[in-house]
Amino acid sequence: MSDVHILKIRPPVWAILFVIVAGGFFYLGGKWIDAADHTPTTISVSGEGKVFGAPDIASLSLGMTTGRKATSTDAMASLSKTMNAVLAAVKAAGVEDKDISTEQLSLNPSYDYTNGQQVLKGYEATQSLTVKVHNLDKVSTVLGAATSAGANQAGNVDFQIDNMDKIRSQAREQAIAQARGKAQTLAQDLGMRLGSIKGFTEDNGVTPPMPYAAKAMDSAVGVGGGPVAVATPVPSGQQEVLSDVTITYDLK
Q1: CATH match of 37-54+162-252 with 2.40.30.40
Q2: pLDDT of residue 211
Q3: CATH number for the domain whose boundaries are 57-160
């Protein structure tokens, strides 16, 4: 039977110490990495753009209320006769069919109260139209023609800019340029450089018209050659379109 010899080799002391030191180094390094703040540095800046635009469309409200009529048929017949005349007058003043739409049409009973009792006395019909006028010099003419033809409700003139997207785009460009300039200055003051954009928001709006020199109409001719009932000046003014933006940048 052969003898079995077991050889035992012990690592040197320095190797054990190396393993211990290296382990401690990696442990402390991991803790340092965990504790380090990796949140990117960002700045948020705002900018405002402001553009004035002249309206090129007017939206008018025109209508007729018949007042009390004996029957519903009488009320609708009276309304139809007057509104046909109003439509003809408006078209003769230069408004196209596509720019005329019915806003509201109604037929309602009309009551009186006698001895505390509600008593039906007739019917009243009402119709209102929305009319768009593309030539602003004709706004007063259209209003006058309609009232001459029998419309007893007229007004609510709303001036609009047809291509509002273009005006808003110009205001936005101004706002973005202003915000970018602020960001570049701030980054330079901090000794850093602008990085990528991390966020963007925009608020926009339109201020009420700001009137400028109005062109008054001294006289006008209505349908059939008669005088227009109303020839009052209707200044369109200007509209202020605003854009407020906020941009968030990374800093490097």
Answers
A1: no
A2: 41
A3: 3.30.70.2970
* Token pair 């949140």 in the structure block, residue: 39
Place of tokens 């703040």: 37
Supply the angle between the helices 72-92 and 139-148 in degrees, to the nearest 10. Answer: 150
Please give the pLDDT value at position 244.
Answer: 95
- Start and end residues for every CATH 3.30.110.170 domain found in the chain: 37-54+162-252
Q: Rounded to an integer, what is the distance from CA 85 to the centroid of its chain?
A: 36
Rounded-to-10 torsion of CA 102, 137, 82, 104: 20
CA distances from 186 to 48, 151, 178, 181 (A): 17, 62, 13, 9
Low-confidence ranges of the chain (pLDDT < 50): 1, 7, 32-33, 35, 210-228, 230
Here the tokens at position 17 are: 């110490």
| φ and ψ of 170, to 5 deg | -65, -40
